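Continuing the series of single-chain predictions for the mutant panel. This is the parent chain; the variants come on the following pages.
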Amino acid sequence: MSTQEARRKFRYDFIGPFVEGLACVKKGNEWFHVRLDDHMPAYDQRFDDVGNFHNGIATVKKDGREFQIRPDGTRVG
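Parent structure:
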């Protein structure tokens, strides 16, 4: 499925490029990551902002706090 097809099908407002098998996605005011293989969310949490993964870690923001997560959404540290 292409990024454009996924955007229409899932009604995403934004889909970024796939990096390390995951893409940043925005739907409404919520950000999260989707998997390359099925475009489904990689985890249940939603954030105010997310960054691309690099070496298995992504920086995210929630309620004014910035921290890092793994691809399954678990917090680093």
